[in-house]
Amino acid sequence: MTTPSTLTAEGIHRTESVSASGGRRRSGLKVERVNWPGTAILVLCALTVLLPLYVSLSMAFKTQGQAVDGNAFSFPEPFSVDGFVQAWTLTNFPVGAAMSLLVTAGTVVATIVLAAFASYAIVRNWERRLFRYSFYYLLAAMFIPFPVVALPQIQLTGRLGLDNPMGVILLATMFQLSFSVLLFTAFLRSIPMELEESARMDGATTWQTFWKLIFPLLAPMSATVGIFAFLYAWNDFMMPSLIISDPALQTLPVRQNLFQTQFSNNYHVSFASYLMAMAPAIVAYLFTQRWVMAGVSQGAVKG
Amino acid sequence: MSITTTTRRGQGRPESRRRRRVEPVFYFFLLPSLVLFTLAITVPGLVGIFFSFTDSIGIGDWKFAGLTNYIAIASDPAILQSYLFTFGFSIVTVLVVNVVAFLLAVGLTSQIRMKSALRTIFVIPMVVSGIIIAYVFNFLFSNSLPSAGAAAGISWLETSLLANPDLAWVAIVVVTAWQAVPGALLIYIAGLVSIPGDVYEAAEIDGASKAQQLLKITAPLVAGYVVINIILGFKGFLNAYDIIVGLTNGGPGTSTRSIAMTVIAGFNGGDYAYQMANATIFFIVAVLISLLQLSLTRGRNTL
Q1: Cα–Cα distance between A49 and A47 in angstroms, integer?
Q2: pTM, whole model, 2 decimals?
Q3: Chain A environment of B28 (Cβ under 8 Å)
Q4: Which of A63, A123, B137, B290 could form a disulfide with A80 if both were Cys (CB 3.0 to 4.6 A apart)?
């Protein structure tokens, strides 16, 4: 924390590409062989990652008759979308997806904005006790796991009429705040004051400076913060299952417990439903993987 | 304001010591986070600690009970079992995750083919919802694995792993590790690419074998990353909830009940105050581990 983090997402990629080109240069001097046994072992390991996903995919497209035959690994024959059709109505997928989207978008936006706001105020007024202590205060939540405060939170959100997706957005954002403030403040400390001073010379207010200059500069950090908030909010089961009291307002992961109590033998339906809930995050990851990978390696090290 | 002016005129203190007035907009930046954080986390936390010294059942009248709850917890076999299980499971999972992730990272940074495709695949589990992938594995453990066991004539595999009180934890370790490996893997990759290639060239000239290089160069140089991964992983696994709910829901019996699950059970079980005492103890444990983390990683958190 004492060393300002100047490592942006691009920074990591630069380091990696530098060392990669370094590797190539070396291999130019001394021809390095491709490690085929290593490749083979890693491909085998990758299969263990893909296997559960393949099973979800193949089970989802089976007919009910084929889904119960006990062979999880067979290809769907014939191809059937019956599972998706049933899952769509059974879990009320459109509403579930809307709730998941609402909770995720709300958490991502609220986390980025609130954490960037607070971090900017803290870093620019570090010599003030209020701001300095606020930093440590907000950071303290990293010591508090959700289960510790879950019971009183369930009660309080219930009393305040927040036992709905709004309450989940609030709580999820607050649990993301510490880590996000840590990332933002580290990054803000590395932004030279001269930049801001020149903006002020041109007559910009602090509010304008923040939105026109600081917030755009924070973009790589916002991406990291946003990715963590997204993965947490989209995938979490524990918090929405405890906070949202009306089942009709539940998020997608919580809706899947339907298949643990009822319809437990309609495997093609349950797997179609699982797939519809998992797919958005996987697809989003495939398109943003550079950012996800860079964000995790720096985020985890900071946190 | 007047005080500032007097000081400025009267004593002419150096610029740096004088306190400039904080722009009001900075309070606007900071206060929303402070207020919401206090309402959402601090207040519930204090309320919880307060009620841990009472006999409240969550609603209605209550009176102070002193340390009764804490004394009762110390000799409650169900709570002790959940602590034993959670710590045992966390230690095993941390070891599995770090060994697997480290070996994968070494493989993924060596001269292999399909490097980026493999890396993409290995990170997928991180973006998948824990509860949903637990449902998928639940199906595999209760249907596919037993039929595979029967086909291969391995008798202990013929019944579901999840129904066996002595082995259900293995399934939980497998699924938790499946999901936790990518995070650790990315951190190890970041550590490995930061080691300059010259070190290995020098070692090769001195006649060190590949295995010696791995043990004598790579391992010590990524030691800091090992510490980070172990602590981050351990902290996360202590909160285990989603995956266990999806796999065993604490069963068979209570053999795989985590601390988080016992605390949450207090919400429906009527022993609110009792479980708040449990949560308070859990909080102290979490703080101790975080302090350990701070003392171990101080000065190391520069990627």
Answers
A1: 5
A2: 0.86
A3: 117
A4: A63
Q: B65 near B52, Cβ under 8 Å?
A: no
Residue B75 CB partners (closer than 8 Å, separation 6+): none
Query: What ipTM was assigned to the predicted interfaces of this complex?
Result: 0.86
B4–A contact, CB cutoff 8 A: no
Whether residue B144 and residue A72 make contact (CB cut-off 8 A), yes or no, is yes
Nearest to B36 by CA among A100, A232, A137: A137
Searching chain B, which residue's CA lies closest to the CA of residue A125?
A: B22
CA-based nearest residue in chain B for residue A156: B44
The terminus-to-terminus CA distance of chain B in angstroms comes to 44
Could you give the 3-state DSSP secondary structure of residue B64? Answer: strand
Q: What is the DSSP letter of B217?
A: I
Class of domain A86-302: mainly alpha
- Alpha-helical (H) ranges within B222-271 are 223-238, 242-247, 259-269
Q: Where are the domains of chain A?
A: 2-31, 36-80, 86-302
* Tens digit of pLDDT at every position of chain A (303 positions): 333 333 334 334 444 444 444 444 444 445 567 888 889 999 999 999 999 999 999 999 998 888 877 777 888 888 888 889 999 999 999 999 999 999 999 999 999 999 999 999 999 999 999 999 999 999 888 878 898 899 999 989 999 999 999 999 999 999 999 989 999 998 899 888 888 888 888 888 999 999 999 999 999 899 989 998 999 999 999 999 999 999 999 999 999 988 887 766 788 899 999 999 999 999 999 998 888 888 877 766 665
